[in-house]
Amino acid sequence: MREVDAAHGYARTVLLNTAASWFRKKSWRNERPSASLPEPGYETDHSDRPAVVDALRQLPPRQRTVVVLRYYEDLSVAQAASALGCSKGTVKSQTSDALARLRMLLGDAVVPQTLGAHHD
Q1: Do 39 and 74 form a contact (C-beta atoms < 8 A)?
Q2: CA 72 to chain centre
């Protein structure tokens, strides 16, 4: 139960550290206001979100962490390895195993075969 109780503090720390790193990056200071907005991204259908969250819960903790770091936080293989204190090969194998399990649970429509095909 301790992990659940610590979640709020952990999330707050992560957000503070992320925000601090953004402000340290030179690219942040180079942003300028613009009259036109960039092209919108693709439309996302969130109707399968409960199924995805349930499927993520079924993954072992290490695989779930790797999926979140790689696809939610958009970290590279090297960045995820550094965050986890493991090798890039471990991140790649854990990602591959996790995506295979998610495809089995959710199907190719939700987790396409092309997801995880690129190598960093």
Answers
A1: no
A2: 2
